[in-house]
Write a structure and sequence with these properties.
The chain is an alpha/beta fold. The protein contains three helices and five strands; from the N terminus they run E-H-E-H-H-E-E-E. Strands 1-2-3-4-5 form a five-stranded mixed β-sheet. The chain is globular.
């Protein structure tokens, strides 16, 4: 399996700009004919996103989900699936408000979501804002169709 890893200079809070950076990276990576393209952790919101953006009620995270859907549609014709890091709302009603997640973009849509299970408690203090992913999140696997 050939995997292309995107090295991007994302800007914290620049959802549209980061989506453009991801799309440009995908455009470049497809020339190498990978089976999967992987963008960095939290690449859509920019890493590390500050508390004020993460915890805005209904604002930033909702907009990021819209931009994620638009990015998936824009990458509809990308031959391989693309894995993009984003902050996913925790709708379970328990735990922290978000998951540090990755979306598998395929055929113009988010086909699967993976949640980070082992959060850091160091400099980025992930466990303050993100709930660890549950069973199946530690070693997610999926077929890329290739």
């Amino acid at each position: 399996m050939k995997i292309a890893l995107l090295q991007l200079n994302t800007v914290v809070g620049d959802l549209a700009g980061n989506a453009d950076r991801i799309a440009a990276g995908v455009d470049e990576a497809v020339h190498y004919r990978p089976d999967l393209i992987v963008a960095p952790e939290l690449s859509l919101p920019g890493c590390p996103p500050p508390r004020d953006l993460l915890l805005q009620t209904g604002g930033f995270i909702a907009r990021s989900l819209t931009v994620l859907g638009e990015l998936a549609a824009d990458l509809r014709d990308a031959p391989p699936p693309v894995l993009v890091g984003f902050a996913e709302p925790n709708l379970t009603g328990t735990g922290r408000p978000l998951f540090n997640a990755a979306a598998l973009l395929r055929d113009g849509a988010v086909s699967k979501t993976f949640r980070k299970a082992l959060l850091s408690s160091g400099v980025f203090d992930e466990d303050r804002y993100f709930e660890p992913g549950g069973p199946g999140s530690r070693n997610p696997s999926t077929s890329t169709g290739g």
